[in-house]
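We modelled the chain as a single entity of 359 amino acids. Its sequence is:
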Amino acid sequence: MKKLLGTVLASVLLSAGLFAYNPPAGGQNVLRLTEPQLIFGANSAAGGGIFTATPASIINNPALTAWEQRVTLDVAGTMLFSSNNDDDHSVGGAFEGGILIPSRWCVSTFLFQGVWTEFIDMPVGNSINFTAGFSKDITDQVSVGLTGTFGLLYGDLTDSDWTGSFGLGVFYNFGDLFFMKNLRFGVSMNNLGKVYTSSETAGIKSSLDDGEFEMADSWPGIATMRTGVAATMVSTDVMDLGLSMDFAYPAFQNFVCDLGLQLQFWDFLKVAAGWEFDVREFAEGAKNIMPSVGVSFKFTFNAKNDSYLAKNGWEQSEITVAGAWKQMYKNVNAVSAGAVMNLGMADTKAPEITLWNEE
């Protein structure tokens, strides 16, 4: 079995080198446009500076959801605006709906996403995508995960196309080290399979201002490895400050660095910023260096005694509402809002063990 997996992985990695690297601007992050936490979370494979796992987290690392104890619902939407005067499609959008279901065997996650971005500065077209993920904690510190993704692409700027791929992930919670608390590491390998290969849209090597057009080859990058580290650097009774740093290698022909900073006040307010530097996009003039910013607010609510939630043991639950903004490229801005509902309250009490009955 190990030999077979090794052979498959080696074949995928070798095939990645056969493709010229010319994706459309934004093609690597098309599935990260749908949720505020994905926009301001710095694409962290280690769960972000302040650890957070939502159904959409499987986009960065399939192993991040393994320790979730509660059924989680995730709904979000994003408006995309282009100020390019030559663009007939000045408004685009994205949305997602996800559910996370824990069980004694694994944590299952199902995510449905739609993206509409037919912009000259970010011509990734229109797509609908479905991702299923399964994660499992192996020890108290290590988890693994697997995802499968299927998507359809269409639009005026692209040919119709489809994608079918899978992803693998590993997560390790080291614990505390010197002044760093909750030090975490994550590694993922995504887009193992067929990616979008539409040839009717402009790649990053095109210079539309000069009238030069070079068709995109494929996106997102096949066999994209992501490595991440995150930790809480400062912790007080009022505020925690966390940092994350990730490196990604799309198709092993590019280098992307993501840095994230998150501040959590008490246990309900989070302010975050993320910054990404894509070497190949920057070199080709598709500059995307403005940081993303966002805020989230968590609160609890009580269900009525005769309601569906109460009857299923979810008398008290949590909702996190979030918003984010990012300037994607010179003429493209994204504004996102969403809500994540955790049904029930997390069990933080250790189990009680009774050795004999006391009278």
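As a brief sanity check on the tokenised model: The longest helix spans residues 2-16. The CA atoms of residues 171 and 186 lie 4 Å apart.
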